[in-house]
Amino acid sequence: MKLESMYQEIILDHYRNPHHKGLREPFDAEVHHVNPTCGDEVTLRVKLDDGVVSDVSYDSLGCSISQASVSVMTDLVIGHTLDEATEAYDAFLTLMRAKGDTGSVTDDLEDVLEDAVAFEGVSKYPARIKCALLGWMAWKDATARAVGEGDNTTEESA
Amino acid sequence: MSLSVTTPLDVERIRKDFPALERVVHGDRPLVYLDNAATSQKPRQVLDALEDYYAHHNANVHRGIHVLAEEATALYEGARDKVAAFVNAPDRAEVVFTKNSSEALNLAANVIAWAEQPYGIHRGDEVVITEMEHHSNIVPWQMVAQRTGATLKWFGLTDDGRLDLSDIDRVITERTKVVSFVLVSNILGTINPAEVIVRRAREVGALVVVDASQAAPHMPLDVRALGADLVAFTGHKMCGPTGIGVLWGRKDLLDVLPPFLGGGEMIETVTMESSTYAPLPHKFEAGTPPIAQAVGLGAAVDYLTGLGMDKVAEHEHAITAYALDRMQTVPGLRVIGPLTAADRGAAISFALGDLHPHDVGQVLDELGIAVRVGHHCARPVCQRYHVPATTRASFYLYSTPAEVDALVEGLEHVRRFFGVAS
Predict the structure, then answer these.
(1) Residue contact B358–A12, C-beta within 8 A
(2) Out of B298, B341, B388, B408, which residue is the most buried by the measure of CB atoms under 10 Å away?
(3) Is B377 a catalytic residue?
(4) Chain A to chain B, count of Cβ pairs less than 8 Å apart?
């Protein structure tokens, strides 16, 4: 059944037992993103330390795909450098553009994405790609703000 | 399971008129189309009318003196006659074609706001809507209120999915210029008590606008009996094509309201300094109208009239009662809206345990069952009932008890798929 390709067991696991969930202090930036077509929502905080994503915390509401995706995302970015996390972000975007074409998912991509490879099946369902991207987009936005904040602080203290 | 529904319609024969209902999806799954509140399927009669119009009569209307132009005009204006009869309008000039309900409601909100005394909406005036409106009957009034400084008020909802009219005399006051409400909710299914609201609006001299988008396709709609000033509905939910909607309005009111959009077709004479406007209904139909779509709507009205709207309503009432009974046997299923079929249309929203509607809809789709998930363009309703979104099954004149059974079995499958303990 095609459906199992989207609802991989690993996705359902993250949905039932999300990682890193809950809003935590301290944080550099907080964003709230919504997926207006289905009502998925995420509030997400990012903490950066010396170019490392030291924490990502979130509170969220929504479908299994959006919930599992944000959970997997935190596993991939927390404790990693900003460059590594951005590489994972880019890889996930590439995966979502695959439209279910397994040939376009290279070994390199798989190495970067780890559990997130399970979302490949989602890319076949245009209506669900936004769900899978919600957490990632929120992280990207929050990180951009956190980096911006850092610049401001530097300028003020200078 | 499905023996307890008595219907006045020959549904088996009716279904043969709708080619899309014969679709098979995801390999071998017969389509179970339960997204009729979003849009209905189209009968062959409507498709043929569209094909015939474009193949043989296509021309622009109300201009040109050639054969096709006259035929196109006759077909377009003939559709207006059919719609006028369908809603029991006193005068065919009261039927204004728009592109959909949203445009009809935007037209209504704006021209009322712009109008001369005693109409017009100004600072200190009040506009009353309800918490169960589709966004298309919220946002235009919000925009008018923001622009004019008027106050937007609304009726709240009761826990069982009805309008809370307990303080109607305090909500609709001498300051109220317009009351605009949905006749049948697209998300809750509720049929609202129009006469109570119209009576109070009349007491204070307010205009009454009715969003009949979910009423016109499903039950007899009589604008005289309704007693409203303006009534909006759309073609594509009632077997017609997309791109065609209707605003019916009282002639003496439409006559004094200013135009909405300016352009061709809506004028009498134009100089470089100023223009005078065409008589009704053309004053409100700027530019080349949706001609083929109107013709298609005319064919849809013929189709519905042929079946009898009272019979359509009776059929849907029976299906709704059956569906409410059956669906509420699914463990963890909570209907958002009235729990019985009394004063209720055929759209049934629900929550299934903690499962997100998007997941519910996805698994149902895999079984060939088409439902709508999300906030149904009625986000305030979701907030009111503390759900991020709902799953909605909505039925129509061709829906069968077997489709209800398929839905219920599908929901059981959804529960198993996500490992919800029974």
Answers:
(1) no
(2) B298
(3) yes
(4) 49
Closest-CA residue of chain A to B363: A3
Closest by Cα among B142, B224, B214 to B178: B142
d(CA A36, CA B18): 32
Residue B267 sits at φ, ψ, to 5 deg, of -110, 165
Q: What contacts B249, CB < 8 A, 6 or more positions away?
A: B94, B96, B108, B229, B230, B231, B257
Cα separation, B284 vs B254, in Å, equals: 9
Query: pLDDT tens digits, chain B, 422 residues: what are they?
Result: 555 789 999 999 999 999 999 999 999 999 999 999 999 999 999 999 999 999 999 999 988 789 999 999 999 999 999 999 999 999 999 999 999 999 999 999 999 999 999 999 999 999 999 999 999 999 999 999 999 999 999 999 999 999 999 999 999 999 999 999 999 999 999 999 999 999 999 999 999 999 999 999 999 999 999 999 999 999 999 999 999 999 999 999 999 999 999 998 899 999 999 999 999 999 999 999 999 999 999 999 999 999 999 999 999 999 999 999 999 999 999 999 999 999 999 999 999 998 999 999 999 999 999 999 988 888 899 999 998 889 999 999 999 999 999 999 999 999 998 887 54
- Among the listed residues B11, B25, B377, B420, the single catalytic one is B377
CA A77 from centre of chain: 8
Identity of the amino acid at B183:
L
Q: pTM of the full predicted structure?
A: 0.91
Q: Which residues of A73-111 are buried (b: 16+ CB within 10 A; e: fewer)?
A: bbbbbbebebebbbbbbebbebbbebeeeeeebeeebee
Q: Which of B135, B187, B355, B359 would best serve as a mutation to test chain A binding (most A beta carbons within 10 A)?
A: B359
Cα Rg, chain A, nearest whole Å: 16
